[in-house]
Amino acid sequence: MKTLGFPKSHRLLKPSDYSKVFNDVALKVPHRNFLILATPNQLGHARVGLIFSKKNLRLAVQRNRIKRQVRETFRLQQDLPGLDIVVLGRQGLNRLDNATVQSSLNELWQRVKKKHRQISSERSDAKPRGTS
């Protein structure tokens, strides 16, 4: 059984990691309160980065509460594919309670997995077959 930790290897730490995702978006999952951008990585596991601006979440306590929720729901997703993921916050997040945020995020992680499967199957279908 995998441990349910959240080590540094599962986080986007450097500006270049974020730039890679923004410059090469392969997967985009919109939501009323969140936007998830992702690009495949070669690590074999997912990494997450968070962007929540003061414009959308005025108080630090609000930003920190949402970030904790995102990290916790990400940590519990053991079957995410090898993606570098950036989660952006949108306006209206401060009005949501923790249960609503958590259910929205769980739904978003499922949509990320589904969209990744679709993109992967499209790429494998598009590859030319070897001659027999």
From TrEMBL:
Single GO BP term: tRNA 5'-leader removal
Annotated catalysed reactions: Endonucleolytic cleavage of RNA, removing 5'-extranucleotides from tRNA precursor
UniProt keyword Nuclease present: yes
Enzyme class: hydrolase
Domain of life: Bacteria
Documented EC number(s): 3.1.26.5
GO molecular function terms listed in the Swiss-Prot or TrEMBL record: 3'-tRNA processing endoribonuclease activity; ribonuclease P activity; tRNA binding
Record bears the keyword Manganese: no
PANTHER family for this protein: RIBONUCLEASE P PROTEIN COMPONENT
Function comment: RNaseP catalyzes the removal of the 5'-leader sequence from pre-tRNA to produce the mature 5'-terminus. It can also cleave other RNA substrates such as 4.5S RNA. The protein component plays an auxiliary but essential role in vivo by binding to the 5'-leader sequence and broadening the substrate specificity of the ribozyme.
Homology family: Belongs to the RnpA family.
Protein's UniProt name: Ribonuclease P protein component
Native species: Marinobacter persicus
